[in-house]
Amino acid sequence: MNKPKLFQKVEVDFVLLATVLLILAIGIIMVYSASSYSALNNPSLNDDMYFLKKQGIFAIAGIVMMLIVEKIDYHRIKGATNIIVLITIILLGIVLFCPPVNGARRWIPLGPLGNLQPSEIAKYTVVLLLAKGIEKTGENIKKFFPTVVIYLFVAAFFAGFVYIEKNLSIATVIMLVSLIIIYVGGAKGWQLGSIIFSLIPLGFIFIKAEPYRWARLMSFRDPWKDAKNVGYQLVQSLLALGSGGVMGLGLGQSRQKAYYIPEPHNDFIFAIIGEELGFVGCVVIILLFLVLIQRGIKIAIHAKDMYGTLIAVGITSVLAVQAIINIAVVTGSIPVTGVPLPFISYGGSSLVVNLMAVGILLNISSQTNK
């Protein structure tokens, strides 16, 4: 009698796919709702569907790429990792010579195609690089010197590039996700705990280096003290959430999107969700992200090798950390920082790259432990 194979090709994780597509659909609707007023009253746009059209195009492109990537065996990515790393470094270097937007250099202009944000690619490049390296390292990952230190320097290299672009928030995401991957890969918890503790003073220095970051940190303690200046965005966000109540004002009925919250379709779109769909709408979004995280963890646990486990952990961590930070910022739980809400906030680079990452996650789920 033939023994059943322990690992075999199965269908992709349908729950994960359905959850991501549902979050994406909600995001497209909310981008339109949050941006329609400002887009219609912008003389250069004069089109309430301007951001909806662009986000729709990005969503279609992202879904196509996700379906393509899902069909590619994730082990083939291992051979292309060095090329991906090289391309990412080149893009991170190019962006430093691009014209600044609001004092920061984060985007590469692509004309009619919009802007490319290399930091969105860098997050997943670090995941792929660490997964490949840790799998090759094996038991040596338990050695703090030099193994863990080398991987931390690799992560810090990319985070430093992103920090130079004045994007401390994404640099922080990169470091947090890297610590999670290294820990899951086999590093000792006390070692990483000591690293996190030692990085606190360094984080303080980075925040102090830019006056606006320090001002944000100080205003976090009492945003109402300077509600017309540094605390303005958080105050308006809290007003939106508060006015939404339990059931919300109704889809499209937000008042704070009418020039009160700057660019409400971006990082603070969760506040508009709370205003229009209420506490119930916010809970639904949070539950959907919890389902996404749970499926990602399940895929990581049942992956057929350590490489698949580490990639699944990394991708899930990127999405989870960003969602947690974004929601925490909008609700006033942590100081204001610019991290988009995955699949919901407006932005082509973030949306397409995140959907491609989900494609990899789906491919891992199709080669699972039976």
Automatic annotation (TrEMBL):
Gene Ontology biological process terms, A to Z: cell division; cell wall organization; peptidoglycan biosynthetic process; regulation of cell shape
PANTHER family: CELL CYCLE PROTEIN, PEPTIDOGLYCAN GLYCOSYLTRANSFERASE FTSW-RELATED
Function: Peptidoglycan polymerase that is essential for cell division.
Lineage: Bacteria, Bacillati, Bacillota, Clostridia, Eubacteriales
EC number: 2.4.99.28
Chief location category: membrane
Sequence intervals crossing the membrane: 12-32, 52-69, 81-102, 144-163, 168-186, 192-209, 230-249, 269-293, 305-331, 343-364
The organism of origin for this protein: Clostridium pasteurianum DSM 525 = ATCC 6013
Family: Belongs to the SEDS family. FtsW subfamily.
GO MF annotation: an example: peptidoglycan glycosyltransferase activity
UniProt xrefs under Pfam families: FTSW_RODA_SPOVE
Catalytic activity: [GlcNAc-(1->4)-Mur2Ac(oyl-L-Ala-gamma-D-Glu-L-Lys-D-Ala-D-Ala)](n)-di-trans,octa-cis-undecaprenyl diphosphate + beta-D-GlcNAc-(1->4)-Mur2Ac(oyl-L-Ala-gamma-D-Glu-L-Lys-D-Ala-D-Ala)-di-trans,octa-cis-undecaprenyl diphosphate = [GlcNAc-(1->4)-Mur2Ac(oyl-L-Ala-gamma-D-Glu-L-Lys-D-Ala-D-Ala)](n+1)-di-trans,octa-cis-undecaprenyl diphosphate + di-trans,octa-cis-undecaprenyl diphosphate + H(+)
InterPro entries registered for this protein in UniProt: FtsW, FtsW/RodA
Gene Ontology CC annotation, any one: cell division site
Location relative to the cell: Cell membrane
Protein name: Probable peptidoglycan glycosyltransferase FtsW
Entries under NCBIfam families matching the protein: ftsW
Topological category with respect to the lipid bilayer: Multi-pass membrane protein
Pathway field: Cell wall biogenesis; peptidoglycan biosynthesis
Entry keywords, A to Z: Cell cycle, Cell division, Cell membrane, Cell shape, Cell wall biogenesis/degradation, Glycosyltransferase, Membrane, Peptidoglycan synthesis, Transferase, Transmembrane, Transmembrane helix
